[in-house]
Structures are given as C-alpha cells and as structure tokens.
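I keep forgetting this: the sequence line spells out the residues, with the fold written below as integer tokens. I include a record here:
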Amino acid sequence: MTARSIRGWVLLSSVTVAVICFLVAGPAVATQGTDKSIFVSALDESGRPVKDLTAAELRIREDGVDREVTGLKPAGDPLTIALLADTTQGASEYTRDIRDALSAFVRQVRAASPDAPITLMEFGQASITVIPFTTSTDDLDKGINKLVGKPNAASVLLEALIDASDHLAKRPSPRRAIVVLNMEPSDEQSREEPKRINEALRKSGAQLWAVSLQKGTMKNPTRDIVLNALTKNTGGNREFIVGQSALLPVLKSYADALTSQYELTYKRPNKSAQVVQVGTTRLGLKLHASGFAPK
C-alpha cells in the first residue's frame, strides 16, 4: 500500500477507497467460511435512496478477491449517530441556519428510525459532548438551541472525530455514523495524526458524512485533504456548499441515505481481511459502504 506525506502527516492512498460503482467480475463461486455483513446505502442519479436493490445486483471483494454474496435485506440494527456541530467564531453569523439544519436532520432520522440514539457534540475550541446518546428529540432540540459560535474559537474537528469514534465504538449496535457540519475557512488547531483518526474510524466502523459551508479561501488545506480521504475510506460523503440555505437539504439527504441502508451479507474464508469493495451491476447507481473490512 502506498502513502504520501503532507506536512509530516501520512495519508492512506486511494487503494483504501473501497466503494466502486461497477465490478465486471461475475458472481463469486460458493466457498466455505464465515458470514460477514456490512451496511450499504444505494442512491439513484438524483441522490434518492433506492428501495428495490437485490442481492443479485451486488458484487463484493476483499483484498482484491471476489466473495460470495449470500444475502441482502433492509438494515435492522439501530442506527447510532454522532452529530458534530461547528461552534467556532466563523459559525457565529450562521447560528440560526445551523440550528435549523441540525434540527431538520434529527427529525428526518426520527421519522424513519425512532429508536436511533444520537449524541450531539461541538468542536469550537474544544471537543465537547453537548447531549449524550439519546432517543429524545426534545433533549436534542434543547442542545441544538444552545449552540453558538464562540468568540475567537478555533476548530478542533479532527480531535472531535476521534472522540466521536471512541464513543461510537462502545455502542451495542454495529450500525454507526458520524455526521459533521463545519465552516470553511477555519483555523484547525487539532494535532491529531491522520493515521490515528483513520484507525479510530476503522475500529468504530462508523461512516463519516460531512457538509462544509465555504465562505472563503481554505486556511487549512491539510484538514481538507484529511476529511476528503476519511469520508471516502468510510463510505460516507462530503458536500461543499456556498449558501447556508443548502445546509438543511443536504443534511436531510444524509438522513435519508443513512436510514435507508441495506445489510449486505457475504461469505469470507476463515481468515482476516483489510479492504472491502462493493459494486453493482445496475447502471446509474451510487453505493456508500465502508472500505474497512469487518472483523
């Protein structure tokens, strides 16, 4: 596996970006082994969840070797989410937009998954848990309505990603996600190594979904590269927007993608694996699944 160094940080190469749109190989030959499963979102060309996907339309590989798909069903495990909000100085003038978008996200998740535990965190100057994991929309609303950009506060988003991953790793359900709303430009003060963040996400099994409101030139291109790599590695997504009115629809689309996940089951020989790739034979479909092979 190759790597490249950026200001002393090492990022995993694109070989770890494991979700691909189409695999030309045919179905894998049946093999002996252990059943493993991963969670997959399937979106059409308009970004809407696809509800009629079948196991026959999917292909899967581990470390470059085809595996046998053994089943596909709507994900039944509770969806557990860490919601990360920007409270740096740059977020101050968008307080109302940020609150509205986060509240809309919570409600969209609740409409489809009422039992989904969500924790609210902020990362202005410090990584802080505002509301612990809860299924109470009222509690989350109270926390969201307290969010405000702090004067002279810089970002510690990368630190918050590790904290959120550690919290999620302790949750009972394997179906996990981190959703981030952040401002660009922003002064990132975290000193966390990208390899450590990547490993924390691997251990948690969480997908990373981020929306970045950009109102100026990037101040920290390294953080930008890290976020792009991490969202790809985990099978999530990152959207850049320039108008705050787009925050709400983007976060609602993330909620739809996460709450409409499938559980894909496949057969693995009795050995470990590092990288998993999921593909589909259906044209025009975009899949979101972690590139980290399950344990």
